[in-house]
UniProtKB/TrEMBL annotation:
Domain 3'-5' exonuclease positions: 36-219
Domain of life according to the entry: Eukaryota
Identification of the protein by name: Ribonuclease H-like domain-containing protein
GO MF term list: 3'-5' exonuclease activity; nucleic acid binding
Organism of derivation: Favolaschia claudopus
SMART domains named in the record: 35EXOc
InterPro entries reported for this sequence: 3'-5'_exonuclease_dom (IPR002562), 3-5_Exonuclease_domain (IPR051132), RNaseH-like_sf (IPR012337), RNaseH_sf (IPR036397)
Keywords linked to the UniProt accession: Hydrolase, Nuclease
Cellular component terms (Gene Ontology): cytoplasm; nucleus
Region of interest called Disordered, as start-end residue ranges on this chain: 1-25
Pfam family, one: DNA_pol_A_exo1
GO biological processes: nucleobase-containing compound metabolic process
Length: 275
């Protein structure tokens, strides 16, 4: 008699989100549907970013240059995607952080969806003394949405792989080694460098679409398993460069976030989700 517990397959529940090989098509749909806005001065930043209000959900990413000498990073661009627009903020043109961008990053009601956001948050904290709030990590979400598929995966998942698995698209990355510290404009003509601008925008755009799909998949997982999946399994604040829980303890002290919050995560892998 088979005594093994029956494993739940979220791939069966999430019928519209089956994992598989990516199609040959790239994310060209974004180029047609999204307006990419390059922001290079304070007035532009504050005027455009004011449209992102409280309780919004945005795709979030940044590009930075790591210093070998002092091991500190320099934020070069910040990308924010809404349902209508992608804003690429060229931080090389600012002495500090524009007020509206700071407001968005620090607003605990605005969801920032992306990958490895604790790394982005660390650099942003070092450069601007900003704690990025309400980060929903796609790498955490995809493991919770599809725990069987990723149960033996302990290494970080790239956005490119997650887009291929869930959205079945090829996220091309042709400017991975670009020198972001030089900015996004041609120094001779002052025009935007289109290839770098598109590269910068794509991660935030793909992150937002992937987030919507994973929210739906997590809901399906919770419904079929008849369990509650709290958002703090995959949501954290970036506090001084570290991932922290969004709520403090009874003594109003910061509590740092870890995978231990998710009871499915045992021994460095998802091995407990069917119990």
């Amino acid at each position: 008699m088979n005594t093994q517990p029956q494993r739940f397959a979220p791939d069966d529940a999430a019928t519209k989100m089956k994992l598989g090989n990516p199609k040959s098509e790239s994310l060209k749909a974004y180029e047609q549907q999204q307006t990419i806005i390059l922001i290079g001065d304070v007035d532009e930043a504050n005027n455009h970013l004011r449209s992102i209000g409280s309780n919004s959900v945005i795709g979030f990413d940044s590009e930075f240059k790591q210093s070998v000498k002092d091991k500190r990073g320099k934020v070069c661009t910040v990308q924010l995607t809404t349902d209508d627009n992608t804003y690429v903020v060229d931080m090389t043109r600012f002495d500090g952080c524009p007020a509206e961008l700071r407001r968005i990053l620090e607003d605990p009601t605005i969801v920032k969806a992306g990958t490895g956001l604790h790394c982005d948050g660390k650099i942003i904290s070092e450069c601007f003394s900003i704690d990025v709030k309400n980060c929903q990590d796609l790498g955490c979400m995809i493991r919770i949405a599809f725990p069987i598929h990723y149960q033996d995966t302990t290494s970080p998942l790239s956005l490119q792989q997650m887009v291929a698995d869930v959205l079945h698209r090829d996220l091309k990355k042709d400017n991975r080694m670009a020198d972001w510290e030089l900015g996004l404009r041609d120094n001779r003509e002052g025009r935007p460098l289109d290839s770098m601008l598109l590269y910068a925008a794509l991660d935030a755009q793909a992150g937002l679409e992937l987030h919507y799909q994973l929210v739906a998949a997590i809901a399906m997982t919770a419904q079929q398993r008849k369990v509650d999946i709290p958002i703090d399994w995959y949501t954290y604040d970036c506090y001084k460069g570290k991932a922290a829980r969004m709520e403090t303890d009874i003594h109003n002290k910061i509590v740092f976030w870890s995978w231990a919050l998710c009871p499915w995560y045992v021994g460095g892998k998802f091995s407990n989700f069917w119990k």
